[in-house]
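Would you kindly consider the sequence and fold I have copied below?
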Amino acid sequence: MKKEKKIVEYASNSKVEKNSKDDYSIDANGNIIRSAKEYTQGSVTGRRVGAFVLWFLGIACEVLAILELLKKVALPKFEMMTWLIILIVLDLVFVVIGSMLWKKANHIDPRSEKNKLGFWTWNNLGTIMSIIAFLPLVILIFTNKDLDKKSKGIVGAIAVVALLVAGISSYDFNPVSKEDLANAKAEILATGDYETNDKGEIIVYWLPHSTKYHLHSTCTHLNREGTSSEITRGTLEQAYAEGLTEPCRTEIKALEKGKTETGE
């Protein structure tokens, strides 16, 4: 006998403020169900502030490496080459984590793409920060006359790889815009067959690690054997925040076909 799957409410883990009762509700299991508005405001601010703090720390590591390279400071315990490698690695960690936070925030609270250049710059600020955090150091390493050829080759190669890793991992290959979200809502509304919560927000369903969202928990793709025993239920905005920007086309086509056949 096929086991029925459990539907799990998507909820933020952050604490609810005492005066925010209008921004959340409690389900039958006692889970906090936050509105898309509250989720956006709380998550985006923290992630964007965190991104700038980490980018600042990354650039600080670069500045310290440059000062060490130019012999303006003498860091203790290790030789110059060791310190340069340590600072490059720390720079990479700070920049990449910061960029991940930035991309996540942009998926939660997307920007309009009416201004194409502004849209690209905003979504790929992490890549720009990666260039700032590594390119000056790379140039100085290869033009420095005090480093021997072997050290220059090793440290230079590490810095170039760090620049490439940071730049590529920070680049948003699938940016989300306000228009994308608006079009997704319009497509769902056009089907005439969807669910909403008590705040009027569109509800969708998805599986862990999936790439698409579904309008109903009964969709065959959600209930196939061999997939997760839990189905997540959340708002369309929350699905977008998790990177699920495409609907189940099988379900959409079936709803459109049913609407046509009934003459609606």
